[in-house]
Amino acid sequence: xxxxxxxxxxxxxxxxxxxxxxxxxxxxxxxxxxxxxxxxxxxxxxxxxxxxxxxxxxxxxxxxxxxxxxxxxxxxxxxxxxxxxxxxxxxxxxxxxxxxxxxxxxxxxxxxxxxxxxxxxxxxxxxxxxxxxxxxxxxxxxxxxxxxxxxxxxxxxxxxxxxxxxxxxxxxxxxxxxxxxxxx
Length: 184
Ligand code: PA5
Ligand code: NI
Fold this sequence. Notes:
single chain, mainly beta, Jelly Rolls, six-stranded antiparallel beta sheet, 2 helices, 15 strands, binds 5-phosphoarabinonic acid, binds nickel (II) ion
């Protein structure tokens, strides 16, 4: 285990200090996730925009530690489907906590049968119970950021979502979000 430590959180810049690794996911990293494959492919082979970034704290992702990260999803949609994270299941079904920090978003969860959607506005704590795959969506027109706190051994099973989907897809609507069944 590492030693007790203070991590400075800048609530305006949404940065952590000291900071761990940063992950950048571009459109080309999101193969097989958007419903409209042609629209995805055109965007991925075109300007290949950054869809989201994940800034981690220095707490390591190992068993019994409790790391944090801040995800920022850019505003946008691909053929109407709102920009989102890949989404994953935790292999050993650990729970997780999200705290919305900036912008507007949604937390889509799927346990293999049931789908749940939580509106995420700054101050909302989204609770992900054990066994629920989770994906975040930017439903607004500015970047959407949230803090995640998760068991260090939780891991990320992305194949689970590629195989089963998330139950619903989130599309841009006049007001808010239009949730449609995955297969449609
Ligand atoms: O731990 C989490 O659930 C988050 O930090 C996510 O990993 C982050 O939002 C990025 O999403 P994904 O891992 O599905 O690409
Ligand atoms: Ni997770």
